[in-house]
Amino acid sequence: MTRVLITGAAGQIGRCLRSAFKGVYQELRLADIAPQAPAQAGETVLRADIRDIAQLEAAMQGVDCVVHLGGIPVEGPWETVRDLNLDGCYNAYEAAYRQGVKRFIFASSNHAIGFHRRENIIDSHVVPRPDTRYGASKVFGEALGRLYADKHGLSVACLRIGTFREPDEPSESRQLLTWISHRDMAQLVQRCIDHPDYHYLVAYGVSNNKRSRWSNADVDFLGYRPQDDSEAYAESILAKRVVENPIAARFHGGFFCPLEFDGDVERID
Fold first, then answer.
1. What burial letters (b/e) apply to 245-269, b meaning 16+ CB within 10 Å?
2. What DSSP assignment string belongs to the chain?
3. How many Cα atoms sit within 13 Å of 127 on the Cβ side?
């Protein structure tokens, strides 16, 4: 993998990867609809709208691997989620297929499994339980990845990213479970880019947190060895004695779960 394209490169994770991958790959292409810093040696900066498949195809010409971060990163109205996280995601996979890209790394989210109860440690085999329209869009992206892997032979990694923050530290109690540091995020993505061969995988984007409830045992072969642990921040966070929303506290998805919620938590097993 010598030519890597990052969509959504102007976002927080995109900027992190740009910095971490400087000089690592022969060419790093950085695509976004938002403004970016000027290209440096080994970089190509592109303006591309993921809603336009022709723009994505042009960006992917000659690319070995796509890291697809583009899209809306939070809950939003259906029209926005649909246009960016469904249509835009489809366009990215299809453009990669048309251009002969070998590998596709999809930025999924823990919100694809947000309504699993938090007392349960979960792995990549759990059924999807999205907590929002945004979470459902990530389930869609994972399913598309499986389709393109099985039908077209695209090597696909779906990363259920936890809490990635600027500044690079957790800020509240749930994040003691879900936080991923910048260097661990970069390591995970690089492992997925560089591994010689896999068909389709799901991995959790989480640091080596003592309190984590997510297992990456199924993808141990990647060699991802997170270096950071949110426990270093636990004392100061817990000293604030902030009480988590009672619905949020029950589920992996945290504060996304109470959004627009009018169901019965006791019926969510």
1. eebbebbbbbbbbbeeeeeeeeeee
2. --EEEEETTTSHHHHHHHHHTTTTSSEEEEEESS--PPP-TTEEEEE--TT-HHHHHHHHTT-SEEEE--S--S---HHHHIIIIIIHHHHHHHHHHHTT-SEEEEEEEGGGGTTSBTTS-B-TTSPP--SSHHHHHHHHHHHHHHHHHHHH--EEEEEEE-B--SSSS--STTHHHHB--HHHHHHHHHHHHH-S--SEEEEEE----TT--B--GGGGGG-------GGGGHHHHHTT-PPPPTTGGGBTTGGGTTTT--S-GGG--
3. 2
Distance CA(2)–CA(26), nearest Å, equals 5
The predicted model scores a pTM of: 0.97
Average pLDDT of the chain to the nearest whole number: 98
How far apart, in whole angstroms, are the C-alpha atoms of residue 244 and residue 125? 28
Assess contact for 122 and 215: CB atoms under 8 A: yes
Task: Return the pLDDT at 1.
Answer: 87
Task: Copy the structure tokens of residue 246.
Answer: 């009672």
Question: Can you tell me the distance from the alpha carbon of 140 to that of 143, in angstroms, rounded to the nearest whole number?
Answer: 5
Q: Where does the pLDDT of residue 38 fall: very low under 50, low under 70, confident under 90, or very high at 90 and above?
A: very high
**How many residues are listed for the chain in this entry?**
269
Q: What is the mean pLDDT of residues 236-248?
A: 97
Say how many CA atoms lie within 13 Å of 114 toward its Cβ: 30
Q: Which of 25, 93, 134, 204 is catalytic?
A: 134
The CA distance from 113 to 126, in Å, is 8
d(CA 18, CA 14): 6
Judge whether 148 counts as a catalytic residue: no
